[in-house]
From TrEMBL:
<protein>
    <recommendedName>
        <fullName>Prolow-density lipoprotein receptor-related protein 1-like beta-propeller domain-containing protein</fullName>
    </recommendedName>
</protein>
<feature type="domain" description="Prolow-density lipoprotein receptor-related protein 1-like beta-propeller">
    <location>
        <begin position="41"/>
        <end position="181"/>
    </location>
</feature>
<dbReference type="Pfam" id="PF16472">
    <property type="entry name" value="DUF5050"/>
</dbReference>
<dbReference type="InterPro" id="IPR032485">
    <property type="entry name" value="LRP1-like_beta_prop"/>
</dbReference>
Length: 434
Protein backbone atom coordinates (compact mmCIF):
# COMPACT_ATOMS: atom_id res chain seq x y z
CA UNK A 1 0.00 0.00 0.00
CA UNK A 2 1.33 3.43 -0.89
CA UNK A 3 2.30 5.40 2.19
CA UNK A 4 0.26 8.60 2.58
CA UNK A 5 2.39 11.61 3.49
CA UNK A 6 1.33 14.56 5.56
CA UNK A 7 0.66 17.78 3.73
CA UNK A 8 2.44 21.00 4.62
CA UNK A 9 0.41 24.05 5.64
CA UNK A 10 -1.65 25.09 2.63
CA UNK A 11 -0.49 28.69 2.59
CA UNK A 12 3.13 27.85 3.34
CA UNK A 13 6.04 29.82 1.92
CA UNK A 14 4.67 32.61 -0.24
CA UNK A 15 6.38 35.37 -2.28
CA UNK A 16 6.22 38.63 -0.44
CA UNK A 17 5.47 41.56 -2.71
CA UNK A 18 7.84 40.33 -5.37
CA UNK A 19 10.57 39.32 -2.92
CA UNK A 20 12.07 36.00 -3.86
CA UNK A 21 13.33 35.36 -0.35
CA UNK A 22 10.14 35.15 1.65
CA UNK A 23 8.78 34.14 5.04
CA UNK A 24 6.23 31.71 6.43
CA UNK A 25 2.78 33.17 6.93
CA UNK A 26 0.25 32.38 9.58
CA UNK A 27 -2.85 30.38 8.77
CA UNK A 28 -5.51 32.37 6.98
CA UNK A 29 -3.27 35.30 6.06
CA UNK A 30 -1.76 35.86 2.66
CA UNK A 31 0.88 38.28 1.42
CA UNK A 32 -0.06 40.86 -1.18
CA UNK A 33 0.99 40.28 -4.76
CA UNK A 34 2.73 43.49 -5.78
CA UNK A 35 2.75 45.10 -9.16
CA UNK A 36 6.16 44.73 -10.79
CA UNK A 37 8.84 46.94 -9.28
CA UNK A 38 10.70 49.31 -11.53
CA UNK A 39 13.82 47.97 -13.19
CA UNK A 40 15.73 51.22 -12.73
CA UNK A 41 13.86 53.86 -10.75
CA UNK A 42 11.83 53.59 -7.59
CA UNK A 43 12.25 53.44 -3.83
CA UNK A 44 13.53 50.91 -1.32
CA UNK A 45 11.55 50.83 1.92
CA UNK A 46 13.51 49.61 4.93
CA UNK A 47 13.79 49.63 8.73
CA UNK A 48 16.72 51.24 10.51
CA UNK A 49 16.82 51.45 14.30
CA UNK A 50 13.03 50.88 14.48
CA UNK A 51 12.24 53.72 12.07
CA UNK A 52 10.77 53.38 8.57
CA UNK A 53 12.79 54.93 5.74
CA UNK A 54 12.74 55.04 1.99
CA UNK A 55 15.58 55.83 -0.39
CA UNK A 56 15.69 56.02 -4.21
CA UNK A 57 16.96 52.80 -5.80
CA UNK A 58 19.34 54.95 -7.87
CA UNK A 59 20.81 56.44 -4.69
CA UNK A 60 20.19 59.73 -2.93
CA UNK A 61 18.99 61.11 0.37
CA UNK A 62 17.02 58.73 2.57
CA UNK A 63 13.68 59.97 3.92
CA UNK A 64 12.42 59.00 7.37
CA UNK A 65 8.72 58.17 7.11
CA UNK A 66 7.77 56.96 10.58
CA UNK A 67 9.29 56.45 14.04
CA UNK A 68 8.87 53.16 15.92
CA UNK A 69 7.43 51.46 12.86
CA UNK A 70 6.04 47.95 12.98
CA UNK A 71 4.36 46.67 9.84
CA UNK A 72 4.18 43.70 7.48
CA UNK A 73 3.38 43.04 3.82
CA UNK A 74 4.11 46.54 2.55
CA UNK A 75 3.08 47.87 -0.88
CA UNK A 76 3.50 51.41 -2.18
CA UNK A 77 1.75 53.57 -4.73
CA UNK A 78 2.78 57.06 -5.79
CA UNK A 79 0.89 58.57 -2.84
CA UNK A 80 0.50 55.91 -0.13
CA UNK A 81 2.30 53.08 1.57
CA UNK A 82 -0.08 50.24 2.53
CA UNK A 83 0.64 47.57 5.14
CA UNK A 84 -0.78 45.40 7.93
CA UNK A 85 -0.03 46.18 11.54
CA UNK A 86 2.46 43.64 12.90
CA UNK A 87 0.33 43.03 16.01
CA UNK A 88 -2.96 42.92 14.11
CA UNK A 89 -2.69 41.24 10.73
CA UNK A 90 -6.28 42.04 9.81
CA UNK A 91 -6.36 45.84 9.72
CA UNK A 92 -5.06 47.55 6.60
CA UNK A 93 -3.07 50.70 7.34
CA UNK A 94 -1.58 53.32 5.12
CA UNK A 95 0.83 56.24 5.31
CA UNK A 96 0.83 59.28 3.04
CA UNK A 97 4.02 59.66 1.00
CA UNK A 98 3.22 63.21 -0.10
CA UNK A 99 2.42 64.91 3.21
CA UNK A 100 5.08 66.02 5.68
CA UNK A 101 4.93 64.37 9.12
CA UNK A 102 1.97 62.27 8.01
CA UNK A 103 0.30 59.98 10.52
CA UNK A 104 -0.55 56.34 9.92
CA UNK A 105 -4.27 55.85 9.33
CA UNK A 106 -6.63 52.91 8.86
CA UNK A 107 -8.12 52.11 5.47
CA UNK A 108 -11.36 50.15 4.90
CA UNK A 109 -12.71 50.96 8.34
CA UNK A 110 -13.19 48.06 10.74
CA UNK A 111 -13.11 45.35 8.06
CA UNK A 112 -10.94 42.34 8.90
CA UNK A 113 -8.85 41.87 5.78
CA UNK A 114 -7.34 38.52 4.80
CA UNK A 115 -5.52 39.48 1.62
CA UNK A 116 -4.85 42.49 -0.58
CA UNK A 117 -3.24 43.29 -3.91
CA UNK A 118 -2.39 46.50 -5.71
CA UNK A 119 -2.70 46.10 -9.46
CA UNK A 120 -2.32 49.10 -11.73
CA UNK A 121 -4.24 52.03 -10.28
CA UNK A 122 -6.43 49.95 -7.98
CA UNK A 123 -6.34 48.34 -4.56
CA UNK A 124 -8.20 45.02 -4.16
CA UNK A 125 -8.86 43.33 -0.82
CA UNK A 126 -10.82 40.43 0.68
CA UNK A 127 -12.46 40.59 4.10
CA UNK A 128 -13.37 37.79 6.48
CA UNK A 129 -17.01 37.92 5.35
CA UNK A 130 -16.01 36.59 1.94
CA UNK A 131 -16.36 39.87 0.05
CA UNK A 132 -13.79 41.30 -2.37
CA UNK A 133 -13.62 45.07 -2.71
CA UNK A 134 -11.87 47.50 -5.05
CA UNK A 135 -10.81 51.11 -4.58
CA UNK A 136 -8.55 53.52 -6.43
CA UNK A 137 -5.17 52.91 -4.80
CA UNK A 138 -4.65 56.64 -4.34
CA UNK A 139 -8.18 57.38 -3.13
CA UNK A 140 -8.34 60.17 -0.60
CA UNK A 141 -10.63 58.15 1.70
CA UNK A 142 -12.82 55.06 1.97
CA UNK A 143 -15.74 56.51 0.03
CA UNK A 144 -14.67 55.01 -3.30
CA UNK A 145 -14.51 51.42 -2.06
CA UNK A 146 -16.75 49.20 -4.21
CA UNK A 147 -17.78 45.57 -3.76
CA UNK A 148 -16.84 43.48 -6.81
CA UNK A 149 -17.34 39.85 -5.65
CA UNK A 150 -18.96 37.93 -2.81
CA UNK A 151 -19.42 34.36 -1.54
CA UNK A 152 -15.64 33.94 -1.50
CA UNK A 153 -14.34 30.85 0.30
CA UNK A 154 -12.18 32.40 3.03
CA UNK A 155 -10.49 29.06 3.68
CA UNK A 156 -8.61 29.78 0.44
CA UNK A 157 -8.23 33.56 0.49
CA UNK A 158 -5.60 34.17 -2.17
CA UNK A 159 -6.80 35.90 -5.33
CA UNK A 160 -4.96 37.37 -8.32
CA UNK A 161 -5.84 40.24 -10.63
CA UNK A 162 -4.47 40.18 -14.17
CA UNK A 163 -5.51 40.76 -17.77
CA UNK A 164 -8.72 42.48 -16.73
CA UNK A 165 -9.98 39.65 -14.53
CA UNK A 166 -9.80 38.58 -10.91
CA UNK A 167 -9.23 34.87 -10.12
CA UNK A 168 -10.45 33.58 -6.75
CA UNK A 169 -12.33 30.80 -4.94
CA UNK A 170 -16.09 31.03 -4.54
CA UNK A 171 -18.65 29.05 -2.56
CA UNK A 172 -21.07 27.97 -5.27
CA UNK A 173 -24.60 27.61 -3.89
CA UNK A 174 -23.07 28.56 -0.55
CA UNK A 175 -21.43 25.19 0.06
CA UNK A 176 -19.21 23.84 -2.74
CA UNK A 177 -15.84 25.45 -3.40
CA UNK A 178 -15.13 26.38 -7.02
CA UNK A 179 -12.21 28.12 -8.67
CA UNK A 180 -13.65 31.08 -10.55
CA UNK A 181 -12.99 34.42 -12.20
CA UNK A 182 -14.87 37.55 -13.18
CA UNK A 183 -14.19 41.01 -14.54
CA UNK A 184 -11.88 42.96 -12.24
CA UNK A 185 -14.39 45.83 -11.99
CA UNK A 186 -17.09 43.46 -10.72
CA UNK A 187 -19.26 43.60 -13.83
CA UNK A 188 -20.61 40.57 -15.63
CA UNK A 189 -21.15 37.02 -14.46
CA UNK A 190 -18.88 34.75 -12.50
CA UNK A 191 -17.02 32.27 -14.71
CA UNK A 192 -16.63 28.94 -12.95
CA UNK A 193 -13.36 27.18 -13.84
CA UNK A 194 -13.59 23.92 -11.88
CA UNK A 195 -14.94 22.45 -8.68
CA UNK A 196 -12.14 22.70 -6.16
CA UNK A 197 -9.86 25.46 -4.90
CA UNK A 198 -6.87 27.41 -6.12
CA UNK A 199 -4.57 26.84 -3.09
CA UNK A 200 -3.17 30.38 -3.16
CA UNK A 201 -2.43 33.18 -5.59
CA UNK A 202 0.90 31.52 -6.40
CA UNK A 203 -0.98 28.86 -8.37
CA UNK A 204 -2.24 31.29 -11.01
CA UNK A 205 0.15 32.15 -13.84
CA UNK A 206 -0.15 34.32 -16.92
CA UNK A 207 1.86 34.48 -20.14
CA UNK A 208 1.27 36.64 -23.23
CA UNK A 209 -0.80 33.81 -24.72
CA UNK A 210 -2.96 32.58 -21.86
CA UNK A 211 -3.61 31.89 -18.20
CA UNK A 212 -2.83 28.72 -16.27
CA UNK A 213 -4.46 27.76 -12.97
CA UNK A 214 -3.65 24.86 -10.68
CA UNK A 215 -6.79 23.61 -8.91
CA UNK A 216 -7.00 21.24 -5.95
CA UNK A 217 -10.08 19.15 -6.74
CA UNK A 218 -10.17 17.73 -3.18
CA UNK A 219 -9.64 20.89 -1.13
CA UNK A 220 -11.35 19.60 2.02
CA UNK A 221 -8.37 17.32 2.72
CA UNK A 222 -5.80 19.36 4.66
CA UNK A 223 -3.68 16.60 6.22
CA UNK A 224 -2.89 13.96 3.62
CA UNK A 225 -1.23 14.55 0.27
CA UNK A 226 -3.60 13.28 -2.40
CA UNK A 227 -3.47 13.03 -6.19
CA UNK A 228 -5.73 16.04 -6.49
CA UNK A 229 -3.99 18.82 -8.46
CA UNK A 230 -5.36 19.53 -11.95
CA UNK A 231 -3.87 22.08 -14.33
CA UNK A 232 -6.37 24.23 -16.23
CA UNK A 233 -5.58 26.55 -19.11
CA UNK A 234 -7.75 29.49 -20.19
CA UNK A 235 -7.67 32.19 -22.87
CA UNK A 236 -5.84 35.32 -21.78
CA UNK A 237 -8.92 37.38 -20.98
CA UNK A 238 -11.12 34.58 -19.69
CA UNK A 239 -13.08 31.94 -21.53
CA UNK A 240 -13.70 28.21 -21.50
CA UNK A 241 -11.21 26.39 -19.25
CA UNK A 242 -9.47 23.23 -20.39
CA UNK A 243 -8.36 20.54 -17.94
CA UNK A 244 -4.87 19.43 -18.92
CA UNK A 245 -4.52 16.34 -16.69
CA UNK A 246 -8.03 15.55 -15.47
CA UNK A 247 -7.39 11.80 -15.72
CA UNK A 248 -3.99 12.02 -14.06
CA UNK A 249 -4.06 14.58 -11.20
CA UNK A 250 -0.72 15.45 -9.64
CA UNK A 251 0.14 14.74 -6.03
CA UNK A 252 -0.44 17.78 -3.79
CA UNK A 253 3.01 17.77 -2.13
CA UNK A 254 4.64 17.30 -5.53
CA UNK A 255 2.76 20.33 -6.85
CA UNK A 256 3.18 22.58 -3.80
CA UNK A 257 6.95 22.12 -4.02
CA UNK A 258 6.98 23.09 -7.71
CA UNK A 259 7.43 26.12 -9.99
CA UNK A 260 5.79 27.81 -12.95
CA UNK A 261 7.66 28.47 -16.16
CA UNK A 262 6.28 29.98 -19.36
CA UNK A 263 5.68 26.57 -20.92
CA UNK A 264 5.74 24.08 -18.04
CA UNK A 265 4.85 23.45 -14.44
CA UNK A 266 7.80 21.84 -12.68
CA UNK A 267 6.96 19.48 -9.79
CA UNK A 268 8.68 16.92 -7.58
CA UNK A 269 7.27 13.45 -8.02
CA UNK A 270 7.47 11.28 -4.91
CA UNK A 271 8.45 14.08 -2.53
CA UNK A 272 7.87 13.47 1.17
CA UNK A 273 7.98 15.61 4.29
CA UNK A 274 9.91 15.04 7.51
CA UNK A 275 8.64 15.28 11.07
CA UNK A 276 8.99 19.08 10.96
CA UNK A 277 6.95 19.27 7.73
CA UNK A 278 10.00 20.19 5.64
CA UNK A 279 10.27 18.73 2.14
CA UNK A 280 12.70 15.86 1.58
CA UNK A 281 13.80 16.66 -1.98
CA UNK A 282 16.47 13.97 -2.20
CA UNK A 283 13.82 11.25 -2.25
CA UNK A 284 11.95 12.67 -5.23
CA UNK A 285 12.51 13.35 -8.94
CA UNK A 286 11.91 16.55 -10.87
CA UNK A 287 9.24 16.40 -13.58
CA UNK A 288 7.60 18.86 -15.96
CA UNK A 289 4.06 18.97 -17.34
CA UNK A 290 3.26 21.13 -20.35
CA UNK A 291 -0.01 22.82 -21.31
CA UNK A 292 -1.10 19.85 -23.38
CA UNK A 293 -0.64 17.44 -20.46
CA UNK A 294 2.59 15.86 -21.69
CA UNK A 295 4.91 14.90 -18.82
CA UNK A 296 8.64 14.25 -18.87
CA UNK A 297 11.41 13.84 -16.29
CA UNK A 298 13.71 16.84 -15.85
CA UNK A 299 15.98 15.72 -13.00
CA UNK A 300 16.94 12.51 -11.20
CA UNK A 301 16.54 14.37 -7.89
CA UNK A 302 13.86 16.73 -6.61
CA UNK A 303 14.27 20.38 -7.65
CA UNK A 304 14.61 22.98 -4.89
CA UNK A 305 14.84 26.06 -7.12
CA UNK A 306 14.61 26.70 -10.86
CA UNK A 307 14.74 29.60 -13.29
CA UNK A 308 14.40 29.96 -17.04
CA UNK A 309 17.44 31.10 -19.00
CA UNK A 310 15.93 31.51 -22.47
CA UNK A 311 16.39 29.20 -25.44
CA UNK A 312 14.54 26.34 -23.69
CA UNK A 313 17.24 26.23 -21.01
CA UNK A 314 16.64 25.89 -17.28
CA UNK A 315 19.08 26.43 -14.42
CA UNK A 316 18.11 24.56 -11.29
CA UNK A 317 19.30 23.28 -7.90
CA UNK A 318 18.46 19.75 -6.80
CA UNK A 319 17.95 18.21 -3.39
CA UNK A 320 21.60 17.11 -3.21
CA UNK A 321 22.86 20.68 -3.48
CA UNK A 322 23.97 20.33 -7.10
CA UNK A 323 23.26 22.99 -9.72
CA UNK A 324 22.75 22.19 -13.39
CA UNK A 325 21.57 23.64 -16.69
CA UNK A 326 19.29 21.52 -18.84
CA UNK A 327 18.08 22.14 -22.39
CA UNK A 328 14.61 20.91 -23.29
CA UNK A 329 13.27 20.21 -26.79
CA UNK A 330 10.24 18.28 -28.03
CA UNK A 331 9.18 17.29 -24.56
CA UNK A 332 12.46 15.85 -23.31
CA UNK A 333 15.83 16.84 -21.92
CA UNK A 334 18.41 16.93 -24.70
CA UNK A 335 21.45 17.96 -22.64
CA UNK A 336 22.47 18.72 -19.07
CA UNK A 337 25.58 20.57 -17.93
CA UNK A 338 26.72 20.75 -14.30
CA UNK A 339 27.61 24.05 -12.66
CA UNK A 340 30.93 23.80 -10.80
CA UNK A 341 29.58 24.57 -7.34
CA UNK A 342 28.71 22.35 -4.37
CA UNK A 343 26.28 22.64 -1.48
CA UNK A 344 24.02 25.03 -3.37
CA UNK A 345 20.88 25.99 -1.45
CA UNK A 346 18.95 27.95 -4.09
CA UNK A 347 19.19 30.18 -7.14
CA UNK A 348 17.31 33.15 -8.58
CA UNK A 349 17.26 35.27 -11.68
CA UNK A 350 18.22 38.90 -11.14
CA UNK A 351 17.21 41.71 -13.47
CA UNK A 352 20.30 43.15 -15.18
CA UNK A 353 18.99 44.93 -18.28
CA UNK A 354 19.03 41.88 -20.54
CA UNK A 355 16.15 39.62 -21.50
CA UNK A 356 17.88 36.55 -20.08
CA UNK A 357 18.74 38.19 -16.75
CA UNK A 358 21.55 37.07 -14.45
CA UNK A 359 21.37 33.77 -12.57
CA UNK A 360 22.63 34.10 -8.99
CA UNK A 361 23.32 31.04 -6.84
CA UNK A 362 23.45 30.82 -3.04
CA UNK A 363 25.82 28.18 -1.68
CA UNK A 364 27.58 27.27 1.56
CA UNK A 365 30.76 28.86 0.20
CA UNK A 366 29.09 32.16 -0.76
CA UNK A 367 26.90 33.80 -3.38
CA UNK A 368 27.85 33.60 -7.05
CA UNK A 369 26.77 35.09 -10.39
CA UNK A 370 26.67 32.59 -13.24
CA UNK A 371 28.44 33.91 -16.34
CA UNK A 372 27.55 33.07 -19.94
CA UNK A 373 30.48 30.63 -20.19
CA UNK A 374 29.28 28.91 -16.97
CA UNK A 375 32.13 30.33 -14.91
CA UNK A 376 31.23 31.89 -11.58
CA UNK A 377 31.86 35.33 -10.09
CA UNK A 378 31.69 35.54 -6.30
CA UNK A 379 29.48 38.33 -4.97
CA UNK A 380 31.47 39.28 -1.89
CA UNK A 381 29.38 40.42 1.05
CA UNK A 382 26.08 38.95 -0.19
CA UNK A 383 24.66 36.04 1.77
CA UNK A 384 21.32 34.25 1.97
CA UNK A 385 20.55 35.87 5.31
CA UNK A 386 21.39 39.50 4.47
CA UNK A 387 20.03 39.94 0.96
CA UNK A 388 16.79 40.40 -0.96
CA UNK A 389 16.08 39.91 -4.66
CA UNK A 390 13.02 41.39 -6.33
CA UNK A 391 11.57 39.91 -9.51
CA UNK A 392 11.58 43.07 -11.59
CA UNK A 393 14.10 45.28 -9.80
CA UNK A 394 17.65 45.57 -11.07
CA UNK A 395 20.38 44.32 -8.75
CA UNK A 396 20.67 42.73 -5.33
CA UNK A 397 19.90 44.60 -2.11
CA UNK A 398 21.77 43.63 1.04
CA UNK A 399 23.04 44.69 4.47
CA UNK A 400 26.80 45.26 4.27
CA UNK A 401 28.44 43.60 7.26
CA UNK A 402 31.69 45.40 6.50
CA UNK A 403 29.99 48.81 6.76
CA UNK A 404 27.81 48.86 9.88
CA UNK A 405 25.04 46.83 8.18
CA UNK A 406 24.22 49.74 5.88
CA UNK A 407 21.98 49.12 2.89
CA UNK A 408 23.77 48.49 -0.40
CA UNK A 409 22.76 47.65 -3.93
CA UNK A 410 25.01 45.40 -6.00
CA UNK A 411 24.76 44.86 -9.74
CA UNK A 412 23.76 41.33 -10.69
CA UNK A 413 27.23 40.60 -12.05
CA UNK A 414 28.94 41.91 -8.92
CA UNK A 415 30.89 44.61 -10.75
CA UNK A 416 29.35 47.68 -9.10
CA UNK A 417 28.10 48.56 -5.61
CA UNK A 418 26.03 51.52 -4.45
CA UNK A 419 25.59 52.57 -0.82
CA UNK A 420 21.98 53.53 -0.12
CA UNK A 421 21.84 54.22 3.64
CA UNK A 422 24.04 55.78 6.29
CA UNK A 423 22.60 53.79 9.17
CA UNK A 424 22.27 50.06 9.91
CA UNK A 425 19.36 48.25 8.26
CA UNK A 426 17.45 45.49 10.00
CA UNK A 427 14.81 44.73 7.35
CA UNK A 428 14.15 45.46 3.69
CA UNK A 429 10.38 45.74 3.31
CA UNK A 430 9.73 46.26 -0.39
CA UNK A 431 10.69 48.13 -3.55
CA UNK A 432 8.20 50.29 -5.38
CA UNK A 433 8.20 51.60 -8.93
CA UNK A 434 6.99 55.03 -7.82
Amino acid sequence: MKKIQRLITRIGLTLLAGVLIGGVLGSGKMTPHASAAAAGNGYVYYNSEDALYRVPTAGGTAQKLSENFSGDYLEATSKYLYFFESDDLSKLQRLSLTENNALISSFAGDKNILFYQIEGDYLYFLDDKGVIYRSPANAADDSQIKQIANNVDTEFPGFFVMNGRIYYNVLKNGTNTWAASKSRDGSGNVQFIAQGAIPSSDYIYSTPTGTSVMVDIKPAETYYSLNSMVLYTLPLNGGNPKAVNAKNPLDANATYSGFWTNNYYIYNKGITVDDDDNYVYSKSKGYAIDKSGKIFQLSQTGIVGLTEMGGNKFAYVDGNGKASISTVANGKVTSTKPIALTNVTNLFKVQNGTAAGQVVLFAASGTFALNADLTLTKLNGVTWDNSAIYESATGIYYFNGEDNECLYKMSADGKTKLKLSDGPVTEIYTISSN
